[in-house]
Model the fold of this input.
Amino acid sequence: MKRINLLGSTGSIGEQTLDVARARGYRIESLAAFSNVDLIERQIREFKPEYAALADEKAAADLKARVADLPVKVLSGLEGVSVCGAEAKGDITLNSVVGMAGLKPTLDAVNAGKTIALANKETLVAGGKLVTDLAEKKKVKILPVDSEHSAIFQCLLGAPENKALKRIILTASGGPFFGKTKEELKKVTLADALKHPNWSMGQKITIDSATMFNKGLELIEAVWLFDMAPENIDIVVHRESIIHSLVEYTDNSVIAQLGHPDMRLPIQFAITYPERFESPERQLDLWEIGTLTFYKPDYETFPCMDICRNAIAKGGLLPAAVNCANEEANLLFRQGKISFCDIPELINAASAYAKDCENYTLQEVLETDVLMREKVREIASV
Ligand code: NDP
Ligand code: MG
Done:
């Protein structure tokens, strides 16, 4: 039986992971989130983990009182989240925390030798070298949950030792603003940006999909997961989100992975790898789908993809800087304090202040996070 430590349990990926666990009868050893007391209490009562944590101290105290009738150990703060990922008895730690808060828990779980199922892409972008070096040292596997990376991972199964991999082709839905001009983007609202055509996700990633920063993050994520140079990673807009990504080998053979847009499949595969079992994913009916379409991304109207491509090409702390600046700009947009088109401008302006260094430490990544948030707010005058 699989045993799972689940970080970010109250979110979109967290809830879908619990769907998979429910359907397959997996044991949940720990649950962690930020402050959603009502939902985590229900999850604790259903899954009876040994540990639970809320990063927010007040919410954690409330939770502790509410579940005093159960043997669960309730922890608080980021330290508590880390204990849930590293010390709880799961063999696999699924990290679906949103944003930079997930970095330390990922590193701690790798250090403890847990297999990592990673949805929390921001932290691989910001601390890619730290995470992958430690994983190599500890001989720990990092299995992708992100649908594109799960697709690439699946396309690479059975590849020759030298991989013979020439190119990765990431598919992108194009988000709600596909086909819009720069002028039209100036008028879009938060409600418009939250209407993703194919996926129902947390708010932060939904806005990242609208700006296409999400695809930039995924490009950097692919660099680290598959040891691929950024210039060998292409992006193709594929509106139907049926092909989840493709790989091209040296002989120009291209392999793709297809399925309906349902995150429960990549979540389940990260947990059961290398085995496969029945899943909630609907069978693919190509007659029903009929047509699949492909377009070149509009890099000029959606500059966030190139911001990320340039950041990983330059390396050092720049990927962390653009990620952290985006986290803050994304938040300010959701709070109604800046407009949609301010997001890439703020990321560019703030990341110019990033410290120039090649081999960074965790401390430097965390300092970059603080600096970028300050700079974004300062430049936006909020
Ligand atoms: P949600 O916003 O739905 O959920 C985020 C989760 O993280 C919640 O459980 C939240 O707790 C928790 N959280 C936030 N801050 C902290 C913290 N400091 N400590 C502990 N837990 C915290 O996000 P999603 O599920 O949509 O996304 C999660 C991650 O997965 C992101 O990195 C995203 O990019 C990635 N991803 C998501 C996909 C999707 O389909 N949703 C697809 C591919 C990748 P609380 O509810 O208490 O605030
Ligand atoms: Mg994705």
